[in-house]
Amino acid sequence: MVIKEQIGKWFEHFHAYPEVSWKEVETTAKLAEILTEMNVKHHTFDDVTGVVAEIGEGNRIIAVRADIDALWQEVGGVYKANHSCGHDANISMVLGALSYLQQEELGSRIRFIFQPAEEKGNGANSMIERGAVDDVSYLFGVHLRPQEEIPYGKVTPAIHHGAAVFLEGKIIGDDAHGARPQQGNNALDPLFAIAQFVKTIHFSPYEAYSAKLTKVQAGGDSLNIIPGTATFAIDARAQSNVVLGELKERISRGIQAIGQMHGVEIELAWSDYTPAAEVSEEATTVAREAILATVGEEGYASDIITSGSDDFHFYTIHNPNLKAAMIGIGADLSPGLHHPDMTFNKEALDIGARVLAETLKKASYLNN
């Protein structure tokens, strides 16, 4: 079977059997099975999902990462695991690159990191803790891009993701009868104040940032009870790690002030921080040369700046000397990433695999 056809079959399998973060058990087993069939040395872990494989020889190590988890979302009225972020495509492209590289002479070892739990924002840390990027000099990632960023046939050497963090809050007041509001502390009043407050946070117009409520829960089935308790969540994003830090601080201070004003306690818990991209010019240059060599000038697209986030960038936060870049593959992807009905042009899978293979091969021969 030719590699392009095999990539398509791999995609069909992983698309049909999605697994959510930290539960990618069958995905890990399938990857191990594929790597065994390919005679590629690899190892799994006793305490976490994911696989790390290697080909080539030498002291230098070039690496590539594929995220393997799916989202949990409503699809056609049913909640289930769903690969609407394209991680099934990322797995398939990286396996395809490995297949192409098995036919090539390499200048160093190349490590393939199949990482769990990107959607939780901390799967990269699990691989870092287990030595997946130890002694790695260059690290590459790959991801499909929505059609509003680049169309099918175009490839970008670097995706400049923004930083993101989530806030979960609980407002603790007192229930009251609908006829006697003075006897309680209505949790909806501070909740509405919070919704308005996050819209009043401003930075320089030259900075990209956002904060918005993404979840609100309050009250029960009885319509004559004023709810004293409510929970909410906020999604906060910025193009730089510095701005996100300040945004986070302003949100915390403002919400606590709202709690004091309304006489309620508000518990806050920040989670799932993912840093903004620290893109290496050296890694970007290697990817750019590989794109030009594979699909030519007509297939080359400039770097992409996106408000989306990816835990891939924890690898460079952990090791600032690591030269890293994530390659973006145009695929006419629509309606968008994370949409339950997301689709894309499957011909992009082989393009991504070939570009990635050429990138890794070129990096394997670098002297630095």
Describe the structure.
The protein is an alpha/beta fold and 368 residues long. It has two domains: 3-161 and 277-364, 3-Layer(aba) Sandwich (Aminopeptidase), CATH 3.40.630.10; 163-273, Alpha-Beta Plaits. 32% of the residues lie in helices and 28% in strands. The strands form five sheets. Strands 1-2-6-3-7-17-8 form a seven-stranded mixed sheet, sandwiched between helices. A hairpin with a 2-residue loop joins strand 4 (71-75) and strand 5 (78-82). The mean pLDDT is 96.
**Fourth-tier CATH superfamily name of the largest domain:** Zn peptidases
**Class based on secondary structure composition and strand pairing:** alpha/beta
- What count of structural domains? 2
Annotated CATH architecture of the largest domain: 3-Layer(aba) Sandwich
What's the CATH topology name of the largest domain? Aminopeptidase
Query: Mind telling me the CATH class of the largest domain?
Result: Alpha Beta
The number of distinct helices, counting runs of at least 4 residues, comes to 9
Share of residues in helices? 25-40%
Can you summarize the main beta sheet?
Answer: 7 strands, mixed
**What is the helix/strand order?**
HHEEEEEHEHEEEEEHEEEHEHEHEH
| Rg for CA atoms | 23 Å
Uncertain stretches:
none
Gap from first CA to last CA: 37 Å
Average predicted confidence as pLDDT: 96
